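R.M. (postdoc): so does anyone remember the format we settled on? I'll just put the structure tokens first.
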């Protein structure tokens, strides 16, 4: 499997997460996307060496396991409704997606001029994945969906770093993984406290 195809598959999971209206499936797909990050990681890092093993372990633990567990646990604690729909509807959401795709394609040559033509389409797919995360902040009405889109955004930035081979130190990479999970956990705690406070007020 080519690296660009791996990026495309991850992008498509992001599109499905954005448009999916069942929160349980959103969280499951987010976990699947986390594990799919192992594909480009193996292809870009050649799958050998301590650095590759470390990154793979972080992806599995933080993106494939911890994030879905936190979201499932939070959804049960706050009795979140199972169904959710975009604030602006599906057609405007799709219009935003197509607009982003057109913009990314238009600027792809400019970006490639700076970073080279290696994985040109992979870069396009990663930029679109980040864009999907941004769209999710705007159109998602349910808290779980918003956090899922934050995770998509974070996955996109991880892939962008991987694609551009920026050589971030291991400590910084571990910190970025940990920060993302801590943000999700803190958001979950705040949401639970908010729901409990509303319950106490309504009594």
């Amino acid at each position: 499997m080519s690296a660009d195809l791996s990026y495309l598959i991850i992008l498509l999971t992001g599109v499905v997460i954005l448009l999916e209206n069942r929160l349980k499936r959103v969280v499951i797909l987010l976990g699947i996307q986390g594990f799919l990050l192992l594909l480009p990681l193996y292809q870009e890092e050649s799958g050998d060496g301590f650095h590759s093993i470390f990154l793979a372990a972080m992806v599995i633990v933080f993106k494939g396991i911890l994030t879905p567990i936190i979201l499932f646990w939070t959804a049960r604690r706050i009795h979140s409704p199972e169904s959710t729909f975009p604030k602006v509807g599906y057609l405007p959401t799709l219009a935003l997606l197509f607009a982003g795709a057109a913009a990314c394609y238009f600027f792809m040559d400019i970006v490639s001029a700076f970073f080279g033509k290696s994985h040109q389409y992979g870069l396009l797919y990663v930029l679109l994945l980040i864009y999907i995360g941004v769209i999710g902040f705007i159109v998602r009405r349910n808290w779980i969906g918003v956090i899922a889109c934050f995770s998509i955004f974070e996955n996109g930035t991880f892939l962008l770093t991987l694609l551009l081979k920026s050589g971030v130190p291991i400590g910084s990479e571990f910190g970025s993984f940990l920060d993302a999970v801590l943000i999700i956990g803190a958001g979950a705690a705040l949401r639970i406290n908010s729901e409990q406070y509303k319950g106490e007020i309504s009594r």
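R.M.: ...and that's the designed sequence above, right after the tokens. Also worth knowing: The chain has one domain: 3-196. Residues 3-196 form one domain.
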